[in-house]
Amino acid sequence: MPELPEVAALADFLDGRMAALPIRRIDVASLSVLKTAEPPYTALAGRTVSGVERIAKYLVIRTVPGAPADTEPQLDLVIHLSRAGWIRWSQSLAPTPPRPGGKGPIALRVHCGLPGEGFDVTEAGTQKRLAAWVVRDPSEVERIASLGPDALSLDRAGLAAVLAGSGGRLKTLLTDQRTLAGIGNAYSDEILHAARLSPFAIAKTLDDEAVDRLYGALGATLREATERLAGLGVGKLKAEKHTGLKVHAREGLPCPVCGDKVREVSYADRSFQYCPTCQTGGKILADRRMSRLLK
After folding, report:
1. Which residues, listed in sequence order, are joined to residue 77 by a DSSP beta bridge?
2. Residue 31, CB half-sphere, CA atoms under 13 Å: how many?
3. Which superkingdom is the protein from (predicted)?
4. Residue ranges of the chain with pLDDT lower than 50?
């Protein structure tokens, strides 16, 4: 799933290629992706891209009128890539629209600038969760309106207040977008490993020293990843993300800090990874497919 650093890199990439260019048309290959009908997606044709931004894990393509007859001062195309969505930029897009309802990965195609320029919004797999909205303001998207503070916007006191108000586990808190926006499964694993904290630690029970470690690890992990991905083409972002991971998706491999074997806990259709020596005092957390935690 693209998280804050990848979405920031995608926003910068698109902004550098789309800003000040006209949107020539938008093709919709999967109608289920569109979550709004008014304004229609066709209203974006002929408008000029004023910039591309990130809100948490959402891409926001902002547009302004491209002709005097266009009376909408602001229309935004908001895209949430969910777990398996991605952006594929091209300078040779086919002029023929993708077939609606087709079995291919393309959900949405945006033509902008010169003929052939633009990008496809794709989604791999069979679970279709990618979503797009056309709105006059991003706050009209209910999911955005309900977001918690951006993960990089909090100071130490702000994070401490969030932790003190939660009786949940740290792993759950870090990935709950209504509590803290922008972090997903991968970077929450990395943040907790860097902070030397158990994924199952209860948020409100952390002492001051543990809060300090978590605050430092959160900022350092997200900023380092964001800086490392900045300026890369969309084709390189996924691979580069994985090169910086120390525990996530590394089950069975040695922890790069202590050498212990990285372990995994699975639940539902997800899993997370951690290092017992660095994070749980050597205790092994049982896989969620088992009946209980090992004591």
Report:
1. 61, 134
2. 5
3. Bacteria
4. 291-295
